[in-house]
C-alpha cells in the first residue's frame, strides 16, 4: 500500500493459525523496517509507519483453514520528528508538517553553534533541513554594552575540560559600573582558578581571587569603572562543575541615600542578598548590600490566587536526591486549575499532585519522563505538589525540570451538564451530577454509538471523556464462519446489498441457504436475510462383507462396513497371500470395495506334503477294493444258492412269489440341508481342489 500521507493501522481482529506468517513492514525507507509480525499481532494493536508505504505479507501452507486477520488503516499527514532541544537553549516550532520551521536560541551565557532555523522537508520520510544546533558556553569573549547577563564556564552545568585558559572582558555603558553576583563556583582542589580584575586587562588589580578566599562573598564584587576582566584557568588533572556568575550594569547617577527594592518573578525566591539596598558613603558611593539573587527553590507554601511552581534551580537542572513539597492554598469557596506547561524529568524521578493539603489526599496524577502540555483540576481549595529526584542519577542541561502554573477558579461541586445526542438518549445515575455520577449514552435502532458509552464525573469535576455520537448503521454484523466451509464476499464488506456465499469442504453437504444478503430495515439495524447454514458430513451406503476363502481370515467379521473403513486379510499357516492384504470401502452410492479380496495359495512346503498324502490315499484305496471283492463274491454266491432253494420249495407248495410294489419311505433319511455344514463342504472342496491341483501338476 502506498499513500501520500503516513499511515496508521489498527488490528481489529486476528486469529492466525500455527504455521501461518504475517509481517507488516514500512517499505518507504532505504531498507524495510518490520513494524509487527504474527508473534506481536493482537486485537487493538496500533501500528504507525514512518513513511507513506506499508507492505503486508501473509503466508499459509494450510489448504483449508479458519484463521483470519482484519486490519483497519487510515492515512495521516507525514510529519518531521520534534527537533531535539539544545542543552542551554530552547526550540520553538511553527508545525511539524512539510514546510514547518524550527527556531533555536540559547540562554544567557551560551552561544548558538549551528543554524538558527531548520525547515521540515517533504519526502517519503520527512526530515529537517539540517542538524540541530548546540548551545555552548564560550571560553572567553568580549561583552560590550554589558547591562545584564550571565557567564558560565565551558561544559556547565557539567564538568569543564582540562588545560583551559578563558578570558572575558565586560564593558558597561558610559557612567555605569558592573556588579558581579556569584551563582555557583565549584573548582577542583588543585591549580584551577577563577580571577576577577577591576579593569579591562590582565594587569588590572584583582577584585576576587579563588586562591585567596575560602568562601564566596555574598555581596558579590563591584567595579569602580565600566570594565571588568575575568580569567578562568584549569590544569591537566581533576575537573569539576566550574562557575556561573551573573553581571549587571548600574547607573552611577544614584545619589547617596537612594534606596532600591528588589522582587522576583513568579516561581522564584530571593536569596543571597537583601530585598532593600541603599547607596551610602558620600566620599566613595557604594551600595550597602549586594543585589539579591532569585532562585527556584525546593518546597514552599503558597497562598496566592495565581502563580508558578518551578523545579529547583530552574531553568538549570535540579539536583539529584531531592524531595520537595509545595502546598498551594486558595479561598475555601474556590478550586485550583493546574496548567503543566513543561514536564521533562528523569524516568526515575517522580512528580505527584495530591487533591488536598497533605500527602494522604487522593492523587490527581503522578508522572515521570517527558509529557506534552496538559491540565489538572482539583476538587477543593488545596493542592500538594511533591517532586522526588533519583539520588543515583542527575539530569543536566537547561529546561530540564518542570513548570506548573496555577490559577484560582470558581468552585463547583458538580460536573457540567452534558448535552443530549441526536438519534439517541442518555440516562443519569444521579440528578445532581456530583462526583461519581455516571451518564450512559445509547442510540436508537439503526444507529451505533461512536465514542465512549459511559462517562463518569471525576475527582476534579471533569468528565472522563468526550460526548459520543450516534452514527447510522449501514452495514450488517460479520455473520461469522461456518465450520468445514469457506465463504466468498461480494460488494463492500458487509454493507447493505452485499452478499456472503458459503461453500462446504469436500465430504460435507450444505444444510440451509448458501447465499446471505445484507438488507436495510427502515427502523432497525441492517441484518442478513437468512440464518447461517451448516456443513454436515455426507452420508454414504455401506459396503457388504466381501467374504473370504476357507484358507484366509478377516481382521473383523461383520455384515456391513462404513465408507472409508478398511478390511485386512491374512492366511492360515502353510498358505501365502496373493495380492494386497488390505482393501478399502470407497464412498459412493453405493459404496464399493477398491479391489477384490486377496487369495491364499499353498506354499511350496505344503504342496509337497499334500502330494504325498494323495499318493498314500490312492494305495489305501486299491487295497480296500481287493478286500471288498474277496468278501463280496462268496457272499453273492451264497445268496444266489439260498434264493434258488427258496424258489424251489415254494413251487412245490404252490405259492406265488410277490415282489414289493413300492419302495420303503425315506422319512428317516437325512435332509440335504442337514449336510449344509461348512466342515463337510470345506473338506470336499479341499479334496477336490487338491486333486485338481495334482492333476494339473501331472498334466
TrEMBL record:
InterPro entries: CUB_dom, SEZ6_CSMD_C4BPB_Regulators, Sperma_CUB_dom_sf, Sushi/SCR/CCP_sf, Sushi_SCR_CCP_dom
Pfam families: CUB (PF00431), Sushi (PF00084)
Origin: domain of life: Eukaryota
Domain Sushi residue range list: 78-137, 233-296, 413-472, 474-537, 541-602
Keywords (A to Z) from UniProt: Disulfide bond, Membrane, Repeat, Sushi, Transmembrane, Transmembrane helix
Sequence ranges assigned to domain CUB in this UniProt record: 139-250, 298-409
Disulfide bonds: 139-166, 443-470
PROSITE patterns, alphabetized: CUB, SUSHI
GO cellular component: dendritic shaft; dendritic spine; endoplasmic reticulum; neuronal cell body
Any one of the GO BP annotations: regulation of dendrite development
TM spans (from-to): 627-649
Classification via PANTHER family: PROTEIN CBR-CLEC-78 (PTHR45656), SEIZURE PROTEIN 6 HOMOLOG (PTHR45656:SF1)
Descriptive protein name: Seizure protein 6 homolog
Organism, scientific name: Etheostoma spectabile
Lineage, broadest ranks: Eukaryota, Metazoa, Chordata, Craniata, Vertebrata
